[in-house]
Amino acid sequence: MGIQFFTYEKVVEEMALLKTLPSSLHKNSLFTKLLTGFIMIITLLFSFNFFSFPYFSRNVQKEIIVNNQQNLSATVERYENHILIVKGAITRLFSNEKVVLMNELGNGTRFDPVNQIVDEIKSILSNDLLYLDNIVLQFRKNGFIIDKNGTSTTGKYFTKNYASKDYGIEFWEEQLELAYPMKIGKRSEFIDKFNGRSNGSFIPIIFKNDSNAQLFIAVFLDPVKMHNAFHNSNQNRFYVINDDKLPLFASLPEPVPDFPLLTEMETYIQDDDLYYFYKKGALTGLTYLAVIPNGNIAAQVSRIISILVVFLVAAVVLSVVISVVFSIKFNNPIRKMMQALQRFHPVGPLSSNIREYNFLYDNIKRMIRINREIHTDLDQKKRQLKNLHYLYKLKKINNNLDSDDEAFQPFYLIVFQLAMTPRYYQLVASEQDRASYFIKEFVSIALADKFADSVTMQIEQDQILSLVFADNNQAERLMETLHELKRVFDQDEEYCYLTIAMRPQLCHPAEFAEAYGETSAMVHRRKPKRRTQIIAQMPHEPKDASFTPAEEQQFLVQLQAGNRKIALELVSSILNRMNKNEATAGQYVEFAKEIIAKSLKTLTALELDISMVLELNAPYLRIKECLTPDEFEDFCKWFLTEALLMIQDRQDGIDPVKQFMTEYLHEHCDEDLSLEMMAGKINMSANYFSKYFKEKIGMNFTEYLTELRIRKAKNLLVESDQKIQHIAEQVGYVNVNSFIRMFKKVTGTTPGEYKRIHQLGR
């Protein structure tokens, strides 16, 4: 930094200027205004909270009581909805045709209906969220029952399988004589005396239906699981009580408390030190009771008030400290900015009571805004004009831009050529564009950090151009910077490799196009290796790297003859020679393109359709993924094999498209196939594919697919013991009824009849 010397008059002027600055402790100063405002707000908030505390403490207890009421209401709603869901499932059982049949027959020896009813019971019980242990259907006729395990008699089942001291055989027999839609019993333990173990502790719920008066269905509900799922955290003492005050369930192993008389008008009662929150279920008529000690509510109120007091005191202290610190920190920078600005542009005050803002508003805001807009606009236009000028010169366009070459300094020209890996091409298009943009931005920032006068632009998606304006003795420093970039790019070899070509001599603006052509040639002569390379000298390129005239003639003869072995051996021989002679990557690319061109020319001459080769396989795009000799050899062999197979098929009279269609349908006939999907696979429209298919196969697409599926189904019916539904799925029919209908339409018999006929024949 330079040193500024002042004359005596200048010092006096500065001192006089500083005297005009406002004092921080002035009554209209920003510091005083800020601090006073903060203190007033803090005082107001503290006063409000202090005087509202008595009112708040009275309402906290009410809110806690309301919260407990709402918690109980939510619990009751969950219980009632759950029982309603269970009732719905059981109601469907009453209307089940197999249940109706068994009720009429009164005989549990009919295995098919029994098994279907058992399956239906197991299906309901498989829903763990119903919390059901078993479902029992009790039939009046012959006194038999059906549950998840099968059939049994009433006496045996309720004395041996599900025996309970609270529910004897007389209880269950009596229920057949009583009329009610639903009865909920109290919780009891049920014993399996056959196995000498407890089935568990359940609440039995009995459902009856007017349409089936000779039958009732009982479910065994697990109340502990329901309580764990439905209760709130503060409902430790929870009871379910019937109209006779008989407890059906208690969450704690203790007697039900002797609570006061409950009325329908109230939702809670306070008695001594206990709160009794209760609500009656609309569906079941049961009373749900939650008992909470008064000490719990008082403790909650006290805890909340204590926390609020602590927070209030802490907030006041912290607010005062923050107000002072913030006022000081906000005021000091403003005074410094005023001192800096007033030396150059002293102005009058704005219409505000704070003098600092009168000064800052009219100067800092306006000056910064105008300055930013001017500089941003100038910098952007300057960069655009400079880049446009270089692009014009690169393309050798005679433009009318005012760009005198003498005004530009000599520069070093660098080309960054991107070679993307298959992993890069797996990214979506937007991600590929972002990756290229970030590489360009990284190069631009890295070069600008070391060489301020540098320009970096992306002239192609895979090519970046940089101009570094520097002295003649900066080449070594620039090369060091490029090696630093290489070390960074080496870490991203999974996605891309770069060829960095730099012309080591300074270029004059008039030599721009020539220098670009030279560096592009250097890129073309990169080594065929998977790594980032820096090229500062024109590499040697061997001559005669491709076909010799004799080899070219032999290749064309073998290609037209469809002789795959000799053609591939010839290509391998040429590639081995190129590798031995250290051919450049550009020569490998040209050789691969020559293979493509000669192959396509031969296919066209033989009147073969080359659209599938070009559109589906995209050979020119795949060349870009090749970087090493082995990869170029694999590509050439792959593409040449595709072309030779088409030629061989032509000679053998094979239609590759027809072969693909039939093979694909045979291998995937068990999938959901459609004409549109198959047309898309071979790049045809649906209408054209339909005509093409019928012309080549002799029948339309739907007829061929149906015949293929039915033929496969016939084999499976005869040769396997699989169910008809499984066979339908294996031949592409999701709906078994559709399969049966189509099978009968084609063969004249159903699948079951077809299988029986052939089994009898064998």
From TrEMBL:
InterPro entries: Homeodomain-like_sf, HTH_AraC, Tscrpt_reg_AraC-type_HTH. This is HTH araC/xylS-type domain-containing protein. PANTHER family: ARAC-FAMILY TRANSCRIPTIONAL REGULATOR (PTHR43280), HTH-TYPE TRANSCRIPTIONAL ACTIVATOR RHAS (PTHR43280:SF28). Keywords: DNA-binding, Membrane, Transcription, Transcription regulation, Transmembrane, Transmembrane helix. It comes from the Bacteria. It comes from Paenibacillus contaminans. GO terms for molecular function: DNA-binding transcription factor activity; sequence-specific DNA binding. Pfam families: HTH_18. Residues 659-757 form the HTH araC/xylS-type domain. The chain crosses the membrane at residues 34-56, 304-328.
